[in-house]
Specification:
Blueprint lengths: L19 H20 L5 H29 L5 H24 L6 H28 L10
Bound molecules: fe (ii) ion (2 copies).
One fe (ii) ion binds next to helix 3 and helix 4.
């Protein structure tokens, strides 16, 4: 904690996968990490962080589940590998939440940066490949809204 400079992660259109719903959720996820980053620099971060973490963890879960359902519905050949990466990220988010509960000083800019980088790498590699497959399969975005 501390330091006056908050590093910003601004959404870059180059990160779009071309799938509107997925892109919209990625922007929201990034914004959530950003809000968390801002919150750790506030005077009483312990007031806001638990609620932000809960929202982030829930959002991560619903986003990953949505992608996994879409991959399964379209018989995506790299489903297993993609899901394994999601599971790693799920575990990391659980660690983040538990770590904060046990010791709020574990919530550092470095940790959040690390997760943001991880998320962006995943979006640009595996998610991009998945979105291309969904497009080619004619998977309707409207079917993802449920
Ligand atoms: Fe994603
Ligand atoms: Fe993904």
């Amino acid at each position: 904690m501390g330091g006056n400079q908050v590093s910003m992660v601004i959404w870059n259109p180059a990160w779009e996968t071309g799938h509107a719903l997925i892109d919209q959720q990625h922007k929201e996820l990034l914004a959530q990490f950003q809000t968390l980053l801002v919150a750790i620099h506030e005077n009483h971060p312990e007031d806001r962080i638990p609620g932000l973490l809960k929202y982030l963890a829930d959002y991560v879960e619903s986003h990953f589940s949505m992608e996994e359902a879409a991959m399964q519905e379209t018989g995506y050949p790299w489903f297993k590998g993609h899901k394994a990466i999601h599971d790693g990220m799920r575990a990391r988010v659980v660690q983040l939440v538990d770590g904060f509960r046990n010791d709020p000083t574990t919530m550092t800019e470095e940790v959040i940066d690390f997760l943001t980088d991880w998320l962006l790498r995943h979006i640009n590699e595996e998610d991009r490949r998945m979105a291309k497959h969904l497009h080619q399969s004619g998977h309707q975005e409207s079917r993802l809204h449920h």
